[in-house]
Every structure is written in C-alpha cells, then in structure tokens.
Amino acid sequence: MKFSLLMDILNKADMVTEVAIQEDCEVADLNLMDRECQQMYNQTVYFIRAEEIGPTTKLPACLIYQGEVPEYREKNLLNWAKIREGVSLAEVFRYVKLQLSEAPELQVQYGDIVTKLISGVDLRTIFTDATTYTGNLFVAIDVSGKIIEHSEPFYVDVPVWMNSIYQGYCDETLMDYINLQRRQLNVPKNSHVVELYCQKMDKYIMVEPLWHNNASLGYVFALNSRPAFDSYTRKMLPLFAHRVKEGILRLKDMDRINDYRSIMRTNILLDAVAGATPAETNLRAKISGLKFQKYMRTMVFRTPYSKDMDYYSYIIMPEVSEILVDQPCFPWHSSLVCLVSTQSNGELSEDKWAQLQELAEKQNLLVGVSNVFSDISEFGEHFNQANKVLEFSTRTDSVGHFFFYLDYILYVILDQVKEEQFLDHCYHPALKQLADYDRKKGGELFETLRVYTETGFNKAQAAQMLFIHRNTINYRIQQIEQLCSIDLSGEKNAKLVFTLQLSFKIFLYRKNRMITQD
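RE: above sequence
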C-alpha cells in the first residue's frame, strides 16, 4: 500500500490532522520507535510520541507521530502525519495494522475465522474473535427482529439497541428505524455490502443483507466509530451472512420455500417451541406482517417408538399438509408440530377430522391436541399442552390416537405436586387393600372395582366390559364390600362413585409416575 493511500484512509477516518508527503513509497509493515531507535526498515511506517524525538534520534522515511515535533527536527521529516488531538497513538497504530492487509498476522487471524466458520464453531465465538481482530462490533438479526447473534462485549450508547441485545429481539421502534433506513437507501435486490452512518448511534455501519429468492431474510452489521472498514471485515461479512442465513433456513429443504413470510412464520413458531417468550413471539409476528386465524389448536404428531427427523419431514409432514392445507407444520425432536385453524369451538370440519383419524390409524400415530386459543403469543404454551398430553397418554396406558389436553387436566394438576408421598394419602384406602389382596391371592378385584366405578356402579355394563358372567361380578362385588367394608350397592351413590373414580386416577397416576421415574 502506498503511504499516500494510507494517509487518505486515515484522513477519512478523521485520525490525522496534518500530512506531508515528499517522496511517496510503499508501506507493508509498521513499528513503534523511541529516541534510542537507530535501525530502520524499508516499507515500514513508524509511530512515536513527539517528545521522544531528540537531537540524535534517527527519523524514518515514513512517520506518524503524536504531539509537536521540535522545530529543529521538522526539516528532517520526509513523509509524515500528525495524529489528531483526542485520538490515541495506540488506536491509530491498531487501525493502520488492520489496513495493511498483507500483514501475515492478520492473514492468520482471517484464516482462523474461516476455519471456525467451516468447523461449525458457534457464531457468538466467531463474532467475538472477529471483534478482537478488527475492533468492529458485530450483530446479526432477521427481518422479524430476532437478534440471531452478537459479539461480546457489545455496547453502543443507545438504550433501544442495548435493550434489544439484552432481551434477544429488537424493539419495534428499532425495527421501524432499520426498515426506514432500508427504504430510504433504496438498496437494490441481491446487492451486497452497504455502508452508512447512524447519527443516533454515532457509528459507521457496514451491512450485509441476507438475500433469499429476491427477499431479505435479515442483516449482518459491522459497527465502528471510524468510517473506513478494513479489508478483512469486508471479506468476512459475506461469510458471516452465509452462516446466518443457513441458521434461518434451519430445517431440511427450507431453502426451497420462496415466500419469506412462510420462512419467518416457521422460525417464529420454532423459537416459541424452544422457549421464546410470548412477548417475543407476538412482536416478531407483528413485525413480519404475519396473519393468523382467530381460533387455533396445536397438534403434536408422534409414533409410539422413536423415529428420525426424516420420517416426519418426508413421510408424515407431506400427508398432514395435504389434509391441513396452508397450516404451518414442522418437525421437532422426533415429532411433527402443526398449528391448526379451527372453528370457535375448536372443531375441524368432519372431512378433515376423518382424514386425520385415517392417517393416524394408518401410520400408528399418537396425536396430542391443545386447548383452543386465539393469540399467537400463546403458541408456545399450547405446544406444551399438546406435548404434555402425549406424555400422560403413554404413562396412563390410554388407548386411541387423539388425546385432548382438557381430558387430562387432572393429571396436569397432579403433575404439579412435588411432594410425591402426599398423593399416597389422596385416594380411597380400598384401592391399596385390593391391590395388596390381588398381589397375594392372584385375584382381579382391583380391576373389577375400577371398571365397576367407571360405569357408575352399573353391574350389567361392567360385566360386559370385563367379559364375565353377571353372577361372577355379583360375587366379586360382595368380596370387595366385605374386604373393604364399603357399600357398593345402587347407581345413585354418586358421592362414592366420584370419590372412587378420582381415587383410581390418582392411584394409577402415582403408580405410572414411579414406573416412569424408575
């Protein structure tokens, strides 16, 4: 690099205030010097504090200094520049080091960044290392306002930016400002690096848009207090953008989706499932311009035995999407999650419901179904409902393919009880007596009472469900009454029926909970 070009860069960065060039020359390295320095190297620009320049100090061909050079030594200067007041010598030294792009150390650092990108090192580490090497701050966001990643430490003297970094997604005012700047700059589609100055932040910004099918999915920003960005930042930013874009198009074949809103919708729902707050989900959906139906349920499709993601991506999801047209579906941890539009009472059309039941039977699917909701900010909560009810259906040996959250609300309540022994005192003592008796005698009194209770003390129906003769159930009920000292006669004993029904649910839940924990 010519010394004159280097001076142009420093002038643009507002780092030097006086420049003189008598014999322009190439500079490829830099070094610090003091009054005792005698050996000078060609193609090297030297840095010194002016008070260090004495009568016998040897002066180099290219010098950048801070302070005032003694008048009697000014005639000995060849190519020189004075550092602007208020700018430190160390800052200028570091900045010049970045500009000399052929510096072996910087090449090594750039190679280190590229290696980490290829190796899949997390973006936080890569951005932070890039900040260490270049002095720039780095941050990536998507068009919904999610802060995908940022370097550490990250600080700008703008509260709305720092609040966004802290909470992990941009405030609406910040996204409005970013979108306004994009419109005012009128950035052509598929263009790359854009440079601008943000007066509110007092930062110069280099932006690399993330393009996908002529639509922007987000941005990678490099921020600095100086207007001239080094060549390595210019080379790294497109690489960062490619990595960030891969993260946005995180699911298999997602890059085939043309509509960026569909991509953002899936990402927002994925993040909600992963634990994003309702406030984040709601704001990102609003910023992305997404519209959702007034009434919705969340469904989680899963097989009784573990299947890999490809099974859900390429077998189950296409079949579900054919039934629930234009409904968001995505694979998630050995299951398929679907946001389903419903009627106000939570019902689907008879045709759709019949098709889903047929699919569930054909593929042997278990389907957890949440309550109805109307606000997309509640999606994460209702995913948890559908996911939880699948867990309960397995633990309670439920039969069928579809399991609704409300049907398992008792188990939801029981699951909140942390003191496990407490539940042992919450069911009728007859249950433990019968369980112990059956274990010792090999009887079936426990199951008989469970079915008899389930029918509301209807002997004929209970006998039919147990596949036994009416006389047999009469005999068993007499045994139970004698053994447990309770009266099971009549269908009008509503209080005892309710107590026993509740007791069986608690007893079986407790038993299955211990089995699951073991």
